[in-house]
Amino acid sequence: MIDRADQVERLLAQMRAALPMPARMTQHLLTALQQQSPATPISPACHITEVHYAGDEGGIVCHLAREGADESGRLVVISITHLVLDPRMPLAREINAYQKHRTKRLRRAQQTPGAGMG
Questions:
Q1: Residue ranges per domain, the chain?
Q2: 8-39 residue pLDDT tens
């Protein structure tokens, strides 16, 4: 098991109460989105508008409203591990702890033969 159910439930409730929340996309995510729409400049700034739990495989996922997004209306839903929050935000510490824990557990699962998320 990657996530702690009690931690996830508590964090989701806190995040839902704080929506929408400003965030920034990681460089990895920004590059992937730019490859999908090379002609459209994409700002790393965004807002988290919804959060859900996608089980151990996906973790906490966020619906993003992107600044300067094109009019295609494409919904971007991404794992919270691909977002960076301002450390001064009220939930930044809790979100960062979840991100670190999840990333560490995923790495460990990938290194263990026969374990992890496929």
A1: 5-108
A2: 999 999 999 999 999 999 999 999 988 988 88
